[in-house]
Amino acid sequence: MYVPPRPRREDDPWFALRLGLCVVASFAAMAWLNPALGTMVAVLPFGLLAGQRKAFSFRIIAAPIMFGLVIWVMAALVAVVRPTPALLMLVMLLLFFVAFYLTRRTGSGVGMLILVAAMMMSIAGMKTPALLNVFRDGLLLGCGVALVINPLLYLVVPSATREVHVDAPRPAAGHHGAGSLIRALVVFGLCFWFYAVLPPSDIILAISAIFPLIFPTRQEAFAEAVERSLATFYGAGAAVAVLMVMTVSGSFALLLCLVFVVTFLFGERMINGPRSASVYQFATSVAIGVVATVLTSGSPSTAVIGRIVLTLLGSLGAALLIALLDRVFLAPIQDPDDHSPHPAIQRWKWGKELM
């Protein structure tokens, strides 16, 4: 799994400012459009923009189009096979395996898009067709907002460098098929739990489980789970601070100022923080996601506690299960040059992150 390097101030001194403006514009769009799934409109443009490095590239435009296309295809596929639950589950298991295999074999992030889309659409579609349409339309709207906002922000707040960042993905060292099958079965079991027991509102549990599983070794899965959990506490704390201030004044302008400050500060830590850049990126997603959820549901304590608990259960539970299954069924593997795609493992091994 390829992880973008930490953003560099000399390449993009206004990186944090651009992220802050993105969240402000997303909240403004959410208030104006008033969608059924407002949280996606608030979070998705930031998530797509925060992974960009260096100068503007066609990826800024291509990423929301590609994700929207994958969402649309998955929703259509689920709608077709939904009347036969056994067929739906078989198709989803196959898609999970293909997505993990693609990621392990090539290191590409396309597999992550397939996993997220397939999981969300199948969970929503298994409940009711109406819910499938709500999730599909909410995600497509979030992609549309990102398609408008993110290129404009690069036009208004350009980077200092003209160099376009080029990804350098690397395949996993081994166990492409067997490792993918184990991870696909774990994700399928989690989805089956949703199909049978859990409500769709707890879908963050499933999404949190994907991120540790996408990494090739159990050490990296644990590192990702720990960092995701830590980021959840950071983001939840920031969300609580915003909501406490909002109890004094419910001004929408004040809300925009607060989410800008939170995003800007986390964006600065992405550049020079002691943790991986993804920790502060995910913390921002948690913070703005919780705030947006509270604005649409009116249950602050439930939103904060639920986000923390479900993230911990999803990420740490998935990492523990994968560690057990890998230890039982797979021989240990190691990259020939001891490479690891995870920044936390890089700091542990070499005392610095690879650029």
Automatic annotation (TrEMBL):
Subcellular location: Membrane
Annotated keywords: Membrane, Transmembrane, Transmembrane helix
InterPro entries, A to Z: Memb_transporter_dom
Topological category with respect to the lipid bilayer: Multi-pass membrane protein
Subcellular location, principal: membrane
UniProt keyword Transmembrane present: yes
UniProt xrefs under Pfam families: FUSC_2
Spans through the membrane: 15-48, 60-80, 86-103, 110-132, 138-160, 181-214, 234-267, 279-298, 304-325
Domain Integral membrane bound transporter: start-end pairs: 190-319
Protein name: FUSC family protein
Organism: Paracoccus angustae
